[in-house]
Every structure is written in structure tokens, then in C-alpha cells.
């Protein structure tokens, strides 16, 4: 992962430790290439989890390093999630990496598990919020002292004025809730959102360094509902049909290889059968 704030503590002793490529865009290119090459040689395959809203210099450096190494064992994964949701997803992939799953399946699982994450935040202002649509009315209300807004960024963006009994749509399956406090009280999350979402438990973690920039304010309490159990994650992933990438030969799930970006070749159309009245071939004269 590209930031220390995305490296959540392990939930069990099996979870693979994170590797943080902190400041890879500011390091000399030869050092960055050598560092990534060492990781690939040590682990075999590398899945780099990077925010979609990461600075362009970070993304460009990652693609440059992969191109220079000419390696199809490096996958760059950029899901459209806020920082805390991205950190949760990265930890789930670390959990799966401890199982008897191939690297292509683990990397492909990121797209699948993204659908089971509900990520949002409680904000004191939406004046600088760029990642979720904000109406003019909400912009005006954000200048009223004491206003708070509940924002769901994923899976379906939604914004409401927070208050007792007011919430945003949550998951329809059992989850735990992770929250990260900024400069805002968290009572609405713990007393209104958590009961409405029927969460099975609640944990706290420090606010990721990227959160204030992503949400446009320090007055934030970021939250994320997720599946914590490795057995459930494993069952979800193994229930999806696996296939072999026709280009690099690795096992994957989904329609695109996350390592070489190859898609399945087009299936040739079967030959059309002749129908009555259709074209006929002339018989040779004899």
C-alpha cells in the first residue's frame, strides 16, 4: 500500500503483515525500482493498493516502476473508496493472502469484496467535499454553526443532514463497524448509525492521514461497515468461478487479469447452419 494510514492492525495472527511504499514518488527512481524488485523476489507477486484519488505523481511512479521491471507479477489496484474503506479492503486482502489461494485469485478478490463495503463519514461541513455530489442547499447549510452531515460514499453516494433518527442506507447483511475520529464528536455514528445498521460490533482506529484531504475537512468521523471474519471472506471468494488467464497463465476470478490486464479472448461464433432457401452449392457435372 502507498500510505501508512492504510495499514490497519491485524485482526489475527494469520493476517499477512502490510508493506508500505511510503513516499515512493519522492525517492530516486533507481531506489524505488530496487525496493519493488526486492519485494517481488521475496513474495513472488505484489498487489499494490492505492487510492484512486492519490496524487498523480504516486500513480505515475508506480506505473513507471512496473514498466521498468517488465513484470507481470505486480498488480496495481485502485478502488474508488475513501481512505478508511480502502484500509479495510487492504486488510481483507492481507487476510486472504494467508489462505490456500493463488495470487491472482487474492488480487482479483479486491473487486469482489469492494461490493461488501459501506464507507462514509460524519462531516461538520461539505463546503470542500468533491467526491460525493453536494446540492446547493447542503452547501448553504454547511455554513450554519453546529451543522453535521452524514455522507455515504460507497456503494451508493448519498448525503443527508445528520440528526436523531436520520441515517443513510446500510448493508443488508451482518457487519462490524470501524470508525476513525477526527475533530468531531462521534455520538451520531455510535448512537444512531450503528443501531440502524444492526452492526455486530464496533471498533476504533486512528484517522488515516489522507482522510482530511479526501473529505475536505478535519471535522470528520469516518466509518466503514465490513465483513471481519476470514471464513466468510474465503467462502465468498471461493464461491466465484475461477479461470486461467490465457496470457500469463495465472488463476483469476472475474473478466480481467489483474496482473497482465488481459481479457478473455472472444469466443468464435459457431458456423451458421444452412437453412431451406439459403445458398446452395452447385453439384459438379458428371
Strand element count: 10
Largest sheet: 6 strands, mixed
Helical fraction: 25-40%
Q: How many separate domains? A: 2
Distance between the termini: 76 Å
How are the elements arranged and paired?
Blueprint: H1 29-43, E1 46-49, H2 56-69, E2 74-77, H3 83-96, H4 103-114, E3 118-123, H5 136-141, E4 149-154, E5 158-161, E6 176-181, H6 187-197, E7 202-204, H7 211-215, E8 220-226, H8 230-238, E9 242-244, E10 251-253
Parallel strand pairs: 1-2, 6-7
Antiparallel strand pairs: 3-4, 3-8, 4-5, 6-8, 9-10
Folded structure, characterized:
By secondary structure, the chain is of the alpha+beta class. It folds into 2 domains: 4-116; 119-226. The chain contains 8 helices and 10 strands. It has helices at 29-43, 56-69, 83-96, 103-114, 136-141, 187-197, 211-215, 230-238, and strands spanning 46-49, 74-77, 118-123, 149-154, 158-161, 176-181, 202-204, 220-226, 242-244, 251-253. A 6-stranded mixed beta sheet has the order 5-4-3-8-6-7, sandwiched between helices. Strands 1-2 form a two-stranded parallel sheet. The longest helix is centred in the N-terminal third of the chain and has 15 residues, at 29-43.
What descriptive keywords fit this protein?
about 290 residues; alpha+beta; 2 domains; 8 helices; about 30% helix; globular; disordered C terminus
Task: Describe the structure concisely.
This protein has helices spanning 29-43, 56-69, 83-96, 103-114, 136-141, 187-197, 211-215, 230-238; strands at residues 46-49, 74-77, 118-123, 149-154, 158-161, 176-181, 202-204, 220-226, 242-244, 251-253. With 286 residues, it is of the alpha+beta class. The strands form 3 sheets. A 6-stranded mixed β-sheet has the order 5-4-3-8-6-7, with helices on both faces.
